[in-house]
Amino acid sequence: MNNLIFLPIVLPLIASVIAAFFPKKLNLSRKFAQITSVILTIMTAALTWHVLTNGTIVVQSGGWEAPFGISIVGDGLSMILVMTTYIIGTAAVFYAPSVLDKQQESFYFYAFFFLLISGVSGAFMTGDLFNLFVFFEVLLIASYGLIVLGNGKVQLRESMKYVLFNVFSSMLFVTAIAFIYAITGTVNFAQLAERVEYVEQAGILTTVAIILFFVFAVKAAIFPLYYWLPNSYVVPNAVVSALFGALLTKVGIYSILRVFTLIFVHDTGVTHQIFIWLAMFTMLFGVIGALSTNNVKLIITYNIIPAVGFMLMGIGLYTEDAIAGSVYYLMHDMVIKGALFFLIGALIVAAGTKDLREMSGVIQKFPLLGWIFFVASLILAGVPPFSGFIGKILLLRGGLEQEEFLLVIIALISSLLILFSMMRIFIRGFWGDLMDNISDDRKRVRNLTIPGVVLVSISIFLGVGAEAVYPHVESIANMLMDRTDYISSVLKE
Amino acid sequence: MEIIMTGLASILFGAGIYNLLQKQLLRIVVGTVLVSHGAHLYFLTMAQLKRGAPPLVVDGVTEYADPLPQALVLTAIVIAFGVTSFLLVLAYRTYTLNKTDNMEELRGSDHE
Amino acid sequence: MAHTNDIILKTMTQLIAFILLGFSIYLFFAGHNAPGGGFIGGLMTAAAIILMYITYGYEKIEQILPINFTTMFVAGLGIATLAGIGSIVLGHPFLSQTFEYYNLPIMGETELATALIFDLGVYLGVVGVTMTIILTIATDSDAKEDEEKAEA
């Protein structure tokens, strides 16, 4: 049974190789990708259930015991994130045929897609700092392949910046690992945690921790390092934007969550206090960006940034409630960002334009799209009883406990502004007089809406069914705060 | 020896970052290459440069070099190789499509 | 492509490409327990092939070596992954390896390791990706088309 924990990483890799053999046979690759991702999702769900009920699974690749081998750790946090990744991936595969043109789809889209899924799952499940770097690179290389799909002029221009930024931060990552290896002599998470504890996180380790945070902050788009994000996420195709928005920044925030709840936790006065300040600025500046534009896709893209701020806030507060809030919010945000990008892609097809000033009355022709978008906006803003609300209430409770009132106020204001930015799309784009540039291709728009509907209903379940989900999140937060479970299950003392 | 290597790595970093801040696309790509070399050299140096046999189990050899940083740096070099070659193709395509390799002319916030 | 008559280059290429290919194969087989390996062997093979491309021109080598390097890369990736998966099927952790000594004809007692299969994947992958990238830039056949696209 233990060995099966490799499958979420290895099987998509194999699927990627297989898909790369027949990129031009579109029908075949579509069917292959859809069937494979459904099977993989079911399998991952079963694995996740097994881990949630029976506890953490650890496997050492190549049979080398930790800390010498590379550990793959399937604990609760990793597994629920991997499962969410698979759900979004499956929705994306069903969404892709209607939104990509044939030339884009046949240029190894499915191969890159599975490679991305493999990299993201690997990054969630690895128990080794250097291996985290490797999986970051796997998912980044897949994302480089996806971002240039279509080869547009503006697209290449923005891709260039995206790639350069990521290459530079990857090299900083290597440097940070070099520092850590020089100081502690290990790169295994569990052993690092032990050794850092042993020296009580001496000053130099805190410095290194901040370098590492800088690297993750670039990937997660935290203030002031988010400026690469809006332009490079808005230029690719809607399905690619959805995958990026739902998965890539979340890998960055997961890494921060893992490293700063497991390893660098002995100097919270410095590190976690910085997080709180950065979280405030991230929330404010992101939402201001969302209000500043009329490009509907750019509005959604900017909305990624305040969500990252919310999750960082939970890590900064570092209480059990707040961490639970971050974990809940992480899950919720992956699902809802995927859904919103899908729906915005459908809206752009339906309205025939990206400019909010040129669209109106879409709901008269496409009522389902309109109302689902409305519900998704409410979920994103955190209106009760939806899932955003549960995450936010936990975060705010943590904030009040720690008496960070300024943070709580800014979080509330930015939630309100998020709602405002979304309602701007709804009121100006969906309501009003029917414009004549609206598409008549009902079938295509319906195909584009359905994956969004599925994700929104999962998100509704996360909120309404919180009774069923919350106990698991609480026990995950419990395990994150009390690090002994992770360390002992990896090192087998 | 470590001090010389650290100095060399810092020169590579400096040269790389100087190149990254240039306007020409090709110089920027060269800059990323230099920065990655600096990072790899730095990794090897930080793990201590030791004299000794290769890290293979052979009778009669007691002094081993530390294998872990070598394995890690090799992985990082392979990754840097792949990413750099992709970056070259991307830079070339960007140049042919946009007809400029000047970063000043590649800025903008219009979204098609 | 203009025809040049580089006697020195052509003669030397015959010799050097041969040495490079031979040495790359040696490196590949040495890889699992001595310096060498699939990555370095692959790069060296790619270097030899590129040298031949430079000397004899694109069309000629295309005829002699009708290999789709993209497929080669994908196949290499597949072999490497399957080599890792094989150990899962047999109940060992991912990427486990083993080795055994065999008495082969001519070569005598030889060590065969399962790591070699993984290395073969790496080798094919490296040759494939290097050649794909270099040939893509070198034979940019749709450059004209792109310029038209950019103007439109």
UniProtKB/TrEMBL annotation, chain A:
Pfam families linked: Proton_antipo_M
Location in or out of the cell: Cell membrane; Membrane
A Gene Ontology term for the protein's cellular component: plasma membrane
UniProt GO MF annotations: antiporter activity; NADH dehydrogenase (ubiquinone) activity
Main location: membrane
InterPro entries: CPA3_Na-H_Antiporter_D, NADH_UbQ_OxRdtase, ND/Mrp_TM
UniProt entry keywords in alphabetical sequence: Antiport, Cell membrane, Membrane, Transmembrane, Transmembrane helix, Transport
Protein topology in the membrane: Multi-pass membrane protein
GO biological process: ATP synthesis coupled electron transport
PANTHER family, per database record: NA(+)_H(+) ANTIPORTER SUBUNIT D1, NADH DEHYDROGENASE
Stated family: Belongs to the CPA3 antiporters (TC 2.A.63) subunit D family.
Protein name: Na(+)/H(+) antiporter subunit D
Organism name: Alkalibacillus haloalkaliphilus
Gene name tied to this protein: mrpD
TrEMBL record, chain B:
InterPro entries named among the record's database cross-references: CPA3_antiporter_subunitC, NUOK/Mnh_C1-like
Membrane disposition: Multi-pass membrane protein
Protein keywords: Cell membrane, Membrane, Transmembrane, Transmembrane helix
Subcellular location: Cell membrane
UniProt main location, coarse: membrane
Segments traversing the membrane: 6-21, 28-49, 69-92
Tagged with keyword Cell membrane: yes
Example of a GO cellular component annotation carried by this entry: plasma membrane
Presence of the UniProt keyword Mitochondrion in the record: no
Gene3D superfamilies in the record: 1.10.287.3510
PANTHER family the UniProt entry points to: ANTIPORTER SUBUNIT MNHC2-RELATED (PTHR34583)
Family: Belongs to the CPA3 antiporters (TC 2.A.63) subunit C family.
Name assigned to this protein: Na(+)/H(+) antiporter subunit C
Organism from which the protein derives: Alkalibacillus haloalkaliphilus
Name of the encoding gene: mrpC
From TrEMBL, chain C:
Transmembrane feature ranges: 12-31, 37-58, 70-95, 115-138
Gene responsible for this protein: mrpB
Subcellular location: Cell membrane
Topology class, membrane: Multi-pass membrane protein
Keyword Cell membrane annotated: yes
Protein name, UniProt field: Na(+)/H(+) antiporter subunit B
InterPro entries: CPA3_antiporter_subunitB, MnhB
Gene Ontology CC: plasma membrane
Organism: Alkalibacillus haloalkaliphilus
Protein keywords: Cell membrane, Membrane, Transmembrane, Transmembrane helix
Domain Na+/H+ antiporter MnhB subunit-related protein positions: 8-132
Higher taxonomy: Bacteria, Bacillati, Bacillota, Bacilli, Bacillales
Family under the similarity heading: Belongs to the CPA3 antiporters (TC 2.A.63) subunit B family.
Domain of life: Bacteria
Pfam families assigned: MnhB
